[in-house]
Amino acid sequence: MSPHRFTQVDVFSDEPFGGNPVAVVHDADGLPDDELARFASWTNLSETTFLLAPTDPRADYRLRIFTPGRELPFAGHPTLGSCRAWLAAGGVPRTPGRIVQQCGAGLIEVADADGRLAFAAPPLVRSGAADGEVVEAALHAVGLGEDDAVGANWVDNGPGWLGLLLTDAAAVLRARPDRALLGDLSLGLVGPHPAGADADVEVRAFDADLPALEDPVTGSLNAGLAQWLIEAEVLPGRYIAAQGTALGRTGRVHINGDADAIWVGGTTAARITGTVDFSR
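User: That's the sequence. What structure does it adopt?
Assistant: Structure tokens below.
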């Protein structure tokens, strides 16, 4: 089995190694499912992706997305990072400035504007207010109380996110997750920064399926939160979310809602390029 081209992309930060890395394997059509899962477990990153030929004629490429423990129908930073890797490898979209990704969630449109990539938030597969017992358990799992929460909604576009709106960014940064208490819940926190800060909100994402429990910067969660909070008129149609602060990262997610979609974007940069050998 010949080596495959490999790219590791830093997503959602202007600073080198300040965002969330995604490992991307190119031309992965011939690799069996167990090899995809095994390699994703071995990289130990929050997500590893595999670029394949599309089966939908409207798509430019097909993407499969794996955490170390499962396959996801959609994820945000892997979408942007994989698109950057595809373009850097010579990929040419059918429509200039618009790339169409095929994945488990369907077709995802990615815009390329002046070098910054942004994906159109996919429809939520689960939305609406969360049950009070679920909210209470979620707050307990991150060491917070009922007074810290302003609202709660399911914002699931594939990974299963429950979103909690907290009183402020300080409450978000005060959270201390407990893996055992979190269980199988994928939990996102968001809270506003004071006026004049370089970001409008602070976001954190927790999932016990992740090796480090906390995801540095999360496109899918930010997409779901934006769909909830813009529609509820809690946040404006354009804002910047900071994420990764608690981990020493400098993630910045740019949200821009227009008449057609909510766009979730940020800086992407290939930091590692080479080959990966799957031979035994």
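The chain has six helices and 18 strands.
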